[in-house]
Amino acid sequence: VFRNKLEFFAAAKISSSFPPPTLPEIAFAGVSNVGKSSLLNALTRQWGIVRTSDKPGLTQSINFFRLASKLCLVDLPGYGFAYAKEEVKESWQELKKCLLVHTKRGMKPLDYELVDLMERHKTPYQIVLTKTDLVFPIDVARRAMEIQESLKKNKSVVNPVMMVSSKTGAGIRNLRDDKAETDHL
Ligand code: GDP
Q1: Would you state the pLDDT for residue 33?
Q2: How far is the CA of 99 from the centre of ligand 1 (A)?
Q3: CATH for 6-182, among 3.20.20.70, 3.40.50.300, 1.20.190.50, 3.20.20.80?
Q4: Residue list, ligand 1 pocket, CB within 6 Å
Q5: CA-CA distance, 65 to 8, in Å (whole number)?
Q6: Which one-letter DSSP state was computed for residue 17?
Q7: What tens digit of pLDDT does each residue of 8-46 get?
Q8: Which of 36, 38, 46, 167 for mutating ligand 1's site (highest number of atoms within 8 Å of CB)?
Q9: Hey, CA dihedral for 36, 40, 43, 49, is it positive or negative?
Q10: Centre of ligand 1 from the C-alpha of residue 148, in Å
């Protein structure tokens, strides 16, 4: 399904203006500049459709993309914005999540807050380490283990941490296959 054309079809700031959920949805969350837009681009190979930028916090609205009328990818704004708006925060809970974590920086307090939120609502989620090309492979593995350890106390089953680089393409196919599998597509 990820080989298909990615089509932007809606942008919204509050859940009341979300498009009707007719397709399975996967939402991508993470701190600003974590590499979210780049990952969406790499996953779908539609360079340039999701805007990437060096300026943190520029993705302010929640953007909806359709893939071959089978899957909906949702680009959530950086935490800075979303945590300020209660409605947006609430709307996150309805979506299945991919939590992106910068490999070099690790989990931030807001990431743990989101994990707690997802645990409370029993929302399935996948942690994805981004920009793995920026550190040595051993440090990527170390970071993954550290996160896995820190999440052990949580009750719900946490999938093994996935690792990607949108720049080199490492891990992108795995993530794509994983998402396709979990969504039975
Ligand atoms: P967003 O704010 O989370 O959507 O982040 P972007 O996708 O806009 O990326 C933020 C910055 O990180 C941009 O300068 C990207 O070129 C860079 N970036 C994104 N992914 C990678 C990656 O896998 N490796 C490296 N080295 N840089 C990346």
Answers
A1: 87
A2: 15
A3: 3.40.50.300
A4: 30, 32-38, 52-54, 59, 130-131, 133-134, 165-167
A5: 4
A6: G
A7: 888 887 777 888 878 878 888 888 889 988 898 888 776
A8: 38
A9: negative
A10: 23
Burial 106-117 (b: 16+ CB within 10 A, else e): ebeebbeebbeb
What pLDDT, on the 0 to 100 scale, is given for residue 81?
45
| CA proximity to 78, closest of 112, 37, 24 | 37
Q: Which residue is closest in CA terms to ligand 1's atom 27?
A: 131
**How is residue 36 written in tokens?**
């979210």
Identify how many contiguous H helices and E strands the chain contains and give both numbers.
6, 7
pLDDT bin (cut points 50, 70, 90) of residue 117 is confident
Angstrom CA distances, 175 to 1, 55, 64, 182, stand at: 13, 26, 19, 10
- Token pair in block for residue 53: 């930028």
Distance of alpha carbon 64 from alpha carbon 51, whole angstroms: 13
- Rounded Cα distance between 78 and 69, Å, is 26
**31, 32, 33: residue to mutate for ligand 1 pocket, most atoms within 8 A of CB:** 33
Phi, psi of 128 (to 5 degrees): -125, 120
